[in-house]
Request: fold
Amino acid sequence: MNKPLVRVISDAIDVRGRLLLLLREMGDVQVSEVGVPDLICIGCDRQLSLGDLERAKKYSYGAKVPIVLVAWNGSEELAIAAMRHGIDDYVRGANYQVELPRVLLSLYSSSSQPSVASCDLLIGESEFTRTTRDYIARVARASSNVLVTGETGTGKELIAKLIHRNSPRAEKALVCINCAAIPDTLLESELFGYERGAFTGATAARDGNLAAADGGTVFLDEIGDMSPYAQAKILRAIETHEIRRLGGGKAQYVDFRIIAATNCDLEALSLEGRFRRDLFFRLNVARIQLPPLRERPEDLLPLAHHFRMEFNRSFGRNTLGFTQRSEQAIVNYPWPGNVRELRNILEASFITLDPECCWIEMPDFFCSAAENEGLPEVNEGDRILKALSESGWNKSKAADILSWSRMTLYRKMERYGIPAEGQTAKICKL
Reply:
């Protein structure tokens, strides 16, 4: 059994500290402050905090996460109140050292509702991340083709894995194909396989990547970089689900689902004649557009702490968090390389980290760059006012004019002191 992820919630600092200590000593669970937990443990003294209950709902992101209440000075009335509020089990403080591990592991092992939200691949607290979890749950249950688009490093392959793992095809293979790395001369042998003697060096018959995905999922990464020849070949396979080995005569039916990813605008490429429109329509059934990390700042610190804990395990460290300067740099930096860049910089920080240090100090060059990048452009406030004026203060239209998301527009309006309504605004020069 994998170790369940447990989140501890308590308004009482001493109660929270005791729970954290016990859970870390257990060894059978993993305590985390980021991501969506498998179990939630609420601690209290004599009275259940409604604030703790609200936080438990918030951290479950709509999933059914079992909740255990630990009360140091419990009572029958408190136990009844806990059950009425939907808490799954109750442990009194006198028995918590023995009972709590048993109750947590029992709830985890008996949970029969696997949830997309409990998967640790999609970390964050932004509106986009929350709604995408729900959308992935619906997409995963279907058999439709999926097109995932977004800048390099935004996590397109992770989305493909998440869809596959939560689909009825999860027990079969997820075959990843880098479309940009297969030359036309090797395309048919790689995708469809070949018979013995089909070409020099073909000493034995071999299945291709599509046959290897029978019953499972094919992930076509960088589909926008496929040549016209390759596009025609893959389109035929998607339409018929039939493949024919190179040098073979009999067609073979293969059951696979397609998830394609690209950082290109396929619709624009298809209008320019650089990507087949019929292939675009075949792929663009379910669509997931991943925004760049700079447009979802609510996800920055949860992601940073998620990677911090990952590197704690791989480097054998026990860091507690980031220094104030480092945390501010993470928030201010524009992250052109997105999630991949964030992970790589954190890994570099662990390589140079003092073994006795509990607080991560990001590299000085990064903090300096973040401080410079965080300064607003001199004329940016005027550009925002101009776009708002041209759109009649319609925020959606103004965001389109500026090529921003609505959330980016709202953040920058707040930064410059631009009011939500169309009265005269004074621009703050930061």
Q: What stands out?
A: The longest strand covers residues 39-44. Confidence is low (pLDDT under 50) at residues 112-120, 374-378, 423-430. The domain at 310-373 is CATH 1.10.8.60 (Helicase, Ruva Protein; domain 3).
